[in-house]
Design a protein that fits this description.
CATH class of the largest domain in chain A: Alpha Beta
Radius of gyration of chain A: 25 Å
Radius of gyration of chain B: 19 Å
CATH architecture of chain B: Orthogonal Bundle
Largest sheet of chain B: 2 strands, antiparallel
Distance between the termini of chain A: 100 Å
CATH topology of the largest domain in chain A: Rossmann fold
Strand content of chain B: under 5%
Shape of chain B: globular
Largest sheet of chain A: 7 strands, mixed
Strand order of the largest sheet of chain A: 7-6-8-9-10-13-14
Number of helices of chain A: 13
Order of helices and strands of chain A: HEHEHEHEHEHEHEHEHEHEHHHEEEE
Shape of chain A: globular
Strand order of the largest sheet of chain B: 1-2
Helix content of chain A: 40-55%
Oligomer: heterodimer
Structural class of chain B: mainly alpha
CATH architecture of the largest domain in chain A: 3-Layer(aba) Sandwich
Number of strands of chain B: 2
Number of domains of chain A: 2
Structural class of chain A: alpha/beta
Number of helices of chain B: 11
């Protein structure tokens, strides 16, 4: 080998080694950077479509909380940003939003939205990208209590359908005189998820539903289902529906001359049922995690005043899906505390710190917010569940209505 | 007995809604061999505008003609800018995409401005149900089939007895020949779309007290109305109304005697089977094309 060739090989070797050293340095710094997320909280919520009011509620609560946190200097000296994306209630859009929030925006955590079907579709991408997810409204049990028992990233500051079903069944059975309870549920991910929970809750009481009926969104007439419920002799009906279909159920009852003694509902009827069903809605009991109408505690009053000013609302009656506002408000504070406890914008550390957060929130005293079992990756315990009732077009705390 | 009557009455009411929407498709198709594919959204527009005007304190009786007029303008604009430019070729189907696109835009706009909640249109006809052989129904629900049949009769009179009606029939039969005979084909097409939109808007006002006005209310109704028009034979207006009523009744009996979950599965299976047996629709006639 000539001296010239030897020199060439030597130089090439040196260049290669230098390139590898530089490249490995770049890769290390890039991977270190990737571990440090940005001080932003993303959200995948319906901002268009039939349930956009639910997305708006989540957005309101999160924005108020972030404004408050930033007014006090932010978290770890950095101001928090909020990045909400529209999922329109469609699972593919929710999946896309997870990737956008985690990979493109590189947010430290994200809030979950309104539709259970969307959140269920988001379970795999959330686990794949590894971002702390805190649900704020959708209640399907399997979002958090996943079948494989391997939920590491998903948490919830909202109602859990399993517990809601137990709560509603308790309310229904206590009120029922003949212990004949029927269930009317919507044919969606939320409704189909709630059905086995209600059945299990009834079974735990040694009872079974006397009638089990379903319907689709936008159904105009429910009389066939209601005739069966009536024939079964149910004096108490549990409704798992949204306002529009809830109205059709009440009108169907009106048409066939059947009004059960008790109507108990999941929080889907907490929107504008009073407006569309009028007096037929009187006495319908609705589960909630937070009620803005009626007498508020000082903390609730202060938050309401901020909501009123920011979103130009007149009265608490203007709030739709108020539980979503309170849940997302608390969820943001819990995430902020977890970041502070983690001491960095590292998603894994923040996820682990979520188990150490103790926080006296709007909805509940979170002591602690979460525990290391799938069942307790839900923060709002059943003891904080509340019952409201429709009366003359207003949704009020049960104690402030003529109903028991 | 009362359950059967209940299914029958409820079925006639919901079927009449399908009939009205199917009739709109029939009117548009007959004149131009094209249609506003998002015709369900015209129904939504009528309902939403009525709720908005009544909410502003305008009397419903005064709001109705204003809403219908606005819907007519919308229908004619759709025909002018979203249908005609894309249906010049006999095989052109670009109008499908353009009308669906405008429908989606309209829905989004209404969601933003009107809100996502369903809102009521209050009329005294849904305050108290009436009892017929033990079955209950709101008077407003009975008004829908009465309106559908009355409109059909008026439409047939219009087609047969008026100059414009005859001109539209001539255009439906053969556009080129009608044009050569001095009929303004463009104008007749626009009038047809206007009539269909007026019917859609009117249907929206009529059904809003029952289904509640919302940005998404027209989607499924539009799809079912279109399906009804196809299986009836889209050019046969009388057939469309009959088919709509029968389909509505069938749905309620499926819900009553099988289950509500089976309604769409069985309903659309029946539609597909009928299309296999009657490719031109049950009341349709095979069209001969001379080459």
């Amino acid at each position: 080998m000539s001296k010239r060739n030897q020199l060439f090989l030597y130089s090439t070797k040196r260049i290669l080694i230098k390139t590898l050293v530089v490249a490995s340095g770049v890769i290390t710094s890039v991977s270190l950077q990737a571990q440090q997320a940005e001080p932003c909280i993303g959200a995948s919520v319906p901002l268009t479509g039939a349930a956009s009011f639910g997305g708006e509620a989540i957005k309101m609560g999160a924005e108020i909380a972030i404004d408050e946190i930033n007014a006090k200097g932010g978290v770890l000296g950095k101001k928090l940003a909020f990045m909400p994306y529209d999922d329109s209630g469609q699972p593919p859009k929710g999946v896309d939003n997870v990737r956008r929030i985690a990979l493109s925006d590189n947010c430290i955590a994200m809030l979950g939205g309104y539709h259970s079907g969307v959140q269920l579709a988001m379970r795999d991408p959330v686990a794949q990208v590894g971002i702390p997810y805190v649900g704020t409204t959708a209640g399907a049990t399997a979002i958090i209590e996943q079948e494989n028992g391997q939920n590491k990233w998903m948490f919830r500051v909202s109602a859990k359908d399993k517990w809601v079903a137990q709560f509603l069944v308790e309310q229904a059975v206590t009120r029922s005189k003949n212990k004949k309870v029927a269930l009317l549920y919507e044919n969606t991910g939320w409704g189909n998820g709630g059905k086995p929970d209600v059945e299990a809750a009834m079974k735990a009481k040694g009872l079974s539903l006397v009638s089990l009926e379903t319907f689709n969104w936008n159904d105009v007439d429910m009389t066939p289902q209601l005739l069966r419920v009536k024939d079964a002799g149910a004096d108490t009906v549990i409704i798992w529906a949204l306002d529009r279909e809830g109205n059709q159920i009440l009108r169907g009852m009106d048409k066939i001359g059947y009004r059960p003694a008790n109507i108990v509902s999941a929080w889907g009827l907490a929107g504008n049922l009073g407006e569309i069903a009028g007096k037929l809605s009187n006495g319908v009991l609705v589960f909630q995690t937070y009620i803005w109408t009626g007498k508020l505690d000082p903390k609730g009053e202060a938050v309401w005043k901020k909501i009123q000013a920011k979103y130009k609302l007149n009265t608490p009656q203007d709030i739709k899906m108020g539980s979503g506002i309170a849940n997302s408000y608390d969820a943001v504070y819990i995430i902020a505390q977890a970041i502070t406890k983690a001491g960095s914008f590292d998603r894994t550390k923040v996820r682990d710190a979520l188990f150490q957060v103790n926080y006296d929130g709007l909805v509940a005293k979170y002591e602690p917010a979460f525990e290391k079992t799938q069942e307790r990756q839900d923060a709002i315990l059943p003891k904080y569940y509340k019952l409201s009732a429709w009366h003359d077009g207003k949704l009020l705390p049960l104690s402030e209505t003529p109903y028991k | 007995m009362s359950a059967t009557v209940q299914y029958l009455l409820s079925g006639i009411s919901i079927g009449a809604i399908y009939s009205l929407i199917g009739l709109g498709f029939s009117i548009m198709w007959s004149a131009s061999r094209a249609a506003n594919f998002a015709h369900g959204d015209v129904v939504m527009l009528g309902a939403v505008l009525a709720v908005v005007f009544v909410g502003q304190g305008i009397l419903l009786t005064l709001a109705i003609p204003i809403v219908v007029l606005l819907c007519v303008i919308y229908g004619v604009l759709i025909e002018r800018f979203a249908v005609t430019p894309f249906s010049k070729e006999v095989t052109g189907i670009g109008w499908m995409l353009s009308t669906i696109g405008i429908g989606i835009m309209l829905e989004s706009f209404v969601t933003i401005t009107f809100g996502s909640f369903a809102r009521p249109l209050v009329t005294p006809l849904i305050e108290k149900p009436i009892s017929i052989f033990g079955a209950g129904i709101y008077p407003q629900e009975l008004l829908i089939p009465v309106f559908a049949i009355t409109f059909l009769l008026c439409l047939e009179l219009f087609y047969r007895r008026t100059l414009i009606g005859r001109a539209i029939r001539a255009v439906a039969f053969n556009q080129m020949a009608a044009g050569l005979m001095g009929i303004n084909v463009k104008l007749m097409t626009a009038i047809s779309f206007g009539i269909a939109a007026a019917l859609g808007g009117g249907a929206g006002i009529l059904i809003a007290p029952i289904v509640q006005a919302s940005s998404t209310m027209g989607l499924l109704l539009g799809l079912k109305g279109f399906a009804i028009a196809i299986i009836a034979g889209i050019t046969n207006a009388r057939g469309v109304v009959i088919m709509g009523l029968l389909y509505g009744i069938m749905e309620k009996f499926i819900e009553g005697f099988i289950s509500s979950a089976a309604r769409e599965a069985i309903g659309f299976t029946v539609i597909i089977l009928l299309l296999f047996i009657f490719p031109q629709g049950i009341f349709g006639k095979k069209e001969m094309v001379k080459v």
